Predict the structure.
Amino acid sequence: MCKIASAGWAALALALLSACGGGGGSSVGPVPNAKLGGLWTGTLTVSGVSYNMTGLSAENGTLELVETDAGNTFAVQYWGTISSMGSKFTASFTGAVISSGGTFSDGSLRGTGTATGTIVEHASVNGTVTFTTSLNTVVTATLMLANDPTYSQPSSLTAISGNYTNSVTSGDTLSITTGGVITYADPAGTQCVGNGMVSIIDASYAVYAGQISFSGCSAANALLNGTSFQGIGAIDSVNVPPLMLFLMHGTVSSTDVPLTLLYKKT
């Protein structure tokens, strides 16, 4: 189940997994709150070291990001919310390591954080991040993201419908009907079966909402049975073949955990 921009914004994700006043007698009204959505790529810089960031946000404030290092050996998924007041933004989120065998510098696997800074609507995000690991290590970082203009393409269930295969590994498949119904299968691997829905958040923009639940998972993956994951995603139609990325999270054994779905259209 378990990418990042080049031919398209999602292609980078794939590469990385295989971020009121007045004067002079006149007055200015309040600055409108910046819209929140985007298909983001950029960097997260910690102690002079830059990490690649790719992610999505929706106009309703849902936020999902993936961080990877230069060697593609370390990856973290973040999920939470973002809001704006004028051109300023605030965000709060949870993060967890998704790379096999990877940890944060103190050996922890997850944590929580906040971010503040400036957002230029549908263009850029620049801010400061404070992240506290589950072992209470506090990390500060600088975030710089740019929006891919394809975010402003309209979304539709017809556009995202189709058959997909895993773009990182082989064996599991996913399909989406024109009615938004998701069907997932991995008969040779986890044996998981998944069912869910894709829905439109704002038809003017390219980010979708998604939900999927699993059953029939075997062995170590049995803990996924009955778990419902939800998040947001988009399809990179510039890439050939088109790539679909959904970043989700759900509660497994009382812990909120991430799920990355990165698939190529067949």
Q: What stands out?
A: The chain is about 5% helix and 55% strand. Helices lie at 9-17, 157-160.
